[in-house]
Amino acid sequence: MRRRTAGPSTLAIHGDVPARAAHDPVAAPIYQSSTFVSPVGSSEEVLYTRYGNNPNQLRLAERLARLEGAEAAIFVASGMGATALAHLAVLNPGDHLLSSDWIYGGTRQLFTEEFTRFGIEVSFVNPDKRREWRSKLRKNTRGIFIESPTNPLMRVLDVQWLAVLAEAEGIALLVDSTFASPINYRPLEHGADVVIHSVTKYLNGHSDIVAGAVAGAETIVEEVRSRMKVWGQALDPHAAWLIERGMKTLAVRVQRHNQTGMEVATWLEQQPKVRRVHYPGLASHPDHALAARTLDGFGGMVGVELSGGPRAAERCLRALRLITHAPSLGGVESLVSEPRFTSHAALTPDERAAAGIPDGFLRLSLGLEDAADLIEDLTRGLAAV
Ligand SMILES: *Cc1c(COP(=O)(O)O)cnc(C)c1O
Fold this sequence. Notes:
By secondary structure, the protein is of the alpha/beta class. The protein contains 14 helices and 12 strands.
C-alpha cells in the first residue's frame, strides 16, 4: 500500500501531474485518437487506446491510485467491466470465490451465470453470520468479494476483520467501494487487496458517463490490464476526459453529499409516515458504531421504508418534483428508485421483506441541491401518501 502524498482535494485535482511549462493548457487536452505514432525500428510499448495507455486513461489511473493509496489503478468502460476483470485477475477455472450476499444485482448475475460457465465456483455468505466466512471456505477458495456500504440498507462491513481472514488463508480480498468513494473510505488502508468502483457513480458524479475502475497492487492491475487488452473494455478517451473533470470536484461533492445525507436522514426519521430510515450516520443503524469508527463520512445514500407499503411509495414518487425517479446514484441530481423494480426485482415480495427490503422501500441518492429544497420535495411526497 502506498501512502497518500497530499490531501484528497489536491490529489483529485492534480494527481502527480508534473510541473507545467509556459503555455501548456491548464485543463488536459483530449487525445481522441485510437492509435499513436510508433518510432520505427523500436521495441517500445505500442500506444493504442484499447491497451489502456492513451494519456487520458493514464492520467485518471494515476489519480485514483493516489486517492486510494494504491500502487496502481486502471479505468475501464463500466463498473461491471471492472468487477469482471478484477475477478479474472485473481481467479482461474477450478477456483472458488466467497461472496457477500449483499451485492449489486449485475455482480450476482456475473458470478452465478458467467463465472460458473468458466468453472469458477461461487458461494454466498450472509455477512450477519460472521462464522459463515470461515465455514464456507474451501481448499480452492482464492478470493473474498464484498460491497460496503451495501445497497440499499447501507450496511457497513468490517473490512479489517475480513482482511485478517483473507491474509491468513493467503487469498485476495476484493471490495466494491462504489458507495463510499475514496473520500469516505479507502479499503486498502484496512487491508483489502483490490478496490473496485463503478465510476459511473460518485467518481464521475454527473450522471453522464458509464465507467469503472480497479485499484491495488501493480501486479494485480497488470493482470487486469492484460485481460482488458483482449476482452476489450477500454475506456473511450472523451469519457476519460469528462471523468477527469468530474473527479476534480470529488472531495467537495462528497463532503456535501455527506452533509445533506445526514440532514435529510435525520429529518426523515422524525416523519410519522416513515417506518424506518437506513443511514449509517444515524444511531439507529445497526452498523453505526463501525461506520463512525471507519468511515470519513456517511455518504448521500439513504434507504427509506414507508409505513404505507408499495401504494404509499407510488403516491410519494408521483408527487415528487425535484427528486427524479431513476436508477443509478452518485450524481449532482437527486434520484430515487424502488428496489422492488430495480436491484431486487428478481425476488418475491416475501423474499424482499425477509431481506429487510419490504415493498414500499425507497432508495434515495441525495444530490447537491439545497437540503431545504430536498426536504420540501420530500414533504410534498409524504403529504400525498
Ligand atoms: C452501479 C454499480 C455497479 C455497476 O456499475 P456500472 O458502471 O453500471 O457497470 C457495480 N457495483 C455497484 C455497487 C454499483 O452501484
